[in-house]
Design a protein that fits this description.
Molybdopterin biosynthesis moea protein, domain 2; 4 domains; 7-stranded mixed β-sheet; Molybdopterin biosynthesis moeA protein, domain 3; 7 helices; 6-stranded mixed β-sheet; alpha/beta; Molybdenum Cofactor Biosythetic Enzyme, Chain A; binds adenosine monophosphate; binds magnesium ion; about 400 residues
Length: about 400
């Protein structure tokens, strides 16, 4: 393995240093369970009941006492009818109870016989054609959730199934962490907004601001409240003004562009004039320049301007940072070992994150242009290959694939 140049920070070091700054935001909110998708639980949810509350039938059929069915030729009378939402009395000796899916099993019954295994006689009595096993087709009280169990743990991000589970223990409100308030702006005099200038009217050197769109969308997906401060011109005073405005009432200021050390890159001196800043050169490709600092009480993160660098550094560094602010306990994306169906002949000194796509043969195809300006690669691709520094790839080699689905 190639050791990165001195001065280049390994990604894992950068991430550990960054996360050390991310203290979970104080304060718990209570939101309606209906509205809690994507939020992070601020407390354990403990069940005050069994789910299901009682033993109940998982079939339409008959509740029986197995000991009553010693002679399969004999028919037993139907002593009661129990539909879902009602509850019957104890099962009378030598009888069966008509029962439907979800209805409580009557006291004394120890199995359900599905109606397909029963013959109803002319007089209404029921003949059971197969000897039932004790417990068959009975869903036990508490088999999903036992009273007192921790159903969902603090730090867990709530998804659709989790909302259903919380509702199943009777919770219509959930304690969640506060949404991080994030101020977003883009730097660059070349940037114009779609809708403001038509493609035919673009001046030489102008480009559309694409970072603003995906960064905003990424922030929203991660549960942030976003204040979009638009485009800030490449001037020190304008950059200082934007930062000063953003620092109050935000947990994080996120910018793209202007973090190199060129004459037109004003992020570094602007942040330093108001607070503190470390400019990092991270040993990854795409995405080398990255800045972390503080302006007043707000965190500051400066992403590179190249769209793919911005996108990838967001996923690898900003995402875990924001999840930690929200108290999320698990943020490491699952990865898969998959065969490369491509050649990567030129090893880089930096750890690379290649835009790839799974193919029908179970392998990975590579987007042909891996330039940090080619945003098409991130749309064509469905994930990243995490390729160690100094590593070439031949077809058939096993590589580490991180699906975008794990990161978005
Ligand atoms: P910078 O990091 O400011 O030197 O920008 C690096 C490259 O990314 C330049 O080619 C910029 O034009 C481009 N770039 C910077 N910001 C954006 C943006 N918001 N949308 C699209 N491209 C950008
Ligand atoms: Mg720039």
């Amino acid at each position: 393995m190639t050791v990165p140049r001195p001065g280049l920070k390994p990604l894992d070091t950068a991430l550990a240093e960054l996360l050390a700054f991310a203290k979970p935001l104080p304060g718990t909110e209570h939101v309606a369970t209906f509205d809690a998708d994507g939020r992070v639980l601020a407390q354990d949810l403990i069940s005050s009941l069994h789910v299901p509350p009682q033993d109940n039938s998982s079939m339409d059929g008959y509740a029986v006492r197995c000991a009553d069915i010693t002679n399969p030729a004999a028919a037993l009378p139907v002593s009661q009818r129990i539909a879902a939402g009602t509850s019957g009395g104890p099962l009378a000796p030598a009888s069966v109870a008509r029962i439907f899916t979800g209805a409580p099993v009557p006291l004394g019954a120890d199995a359900i016989v599905m109606q397909e295994d029963c013959e109803v006689q002319a007089d209404g009595a029921v003949r059971i054609t197969n000897q039932p096993r004790t417990g068959q087709w009975i869903r036990r009280a508490g088999e999903d959730v036992a009273l007192g169990a921790v159903v969902l743990a603090q730090g867990q991000r709530l998804g659709p199934a989790a909302l259903g589970l919380a509702a199943s223990i009777g919770l219509d409100q959930l304690p969640v962490s506060r949404r991080p308030k994030v101020a977003l702006f883009s730097t660059g005099d070349e940037l114009v907004m779609p809708g403001q200038v038509a493609p035919a009217d673009m001046l030489p050197g102008a480009i559309y601001n694409s970072n603003r769109f995906f960064l905003r969308a990424l922030l929203l997906r991660l549960g942030c409240d976003v204040t979009d401060l638009g485009i800030v011109p490449d001037r020190l005073d304008a950059t200082v003004d934007a930062l000063r405005q953003a620092a109050s009432h935000h947990d994080l200021i996120l910018t793209s562009g202007g973090v190199s050390v060129g004459e037109e890159d004003h992020i570094k001196p602007a942040v330093q004039s108001l607070g503190t800043l470390d400019l990092w050169q991270i040993a990854i490709k795409p995405g080398k320049p990255f800045a972390y600092g503080q302006v007043g009480a707000a965190h500051f993160i400066g992403l590179p301007g190249n769209p793919v660098s911005s996108f990838v550094t967001f996923l690898l560094l900003v995402r875990p940072f924001l999840l930690k602010l929200q108290g999320q306990s698990q943020w490491v994306p699952a990865r898969m070992a998959l065969p490369a169906h491509f050649t990567w002949a030129k090893a880089d000194k930096r750890r690379e994150f290649l835009r790839v796509r799974r193919n029908a043969a179970g392998g990975l195809d590579l987007f042909p242009n891996q330039s940090s300006g080619v945003l098409t690669s991130a749309v064509w691709g469905d994930g990243l290959v995490d390729n160690p520094a100094g590593q070439t790839i031949a077809p058939g080699d096993t590589v580490q694939f991180i699906p975008f689905a794990e990161l978005l």
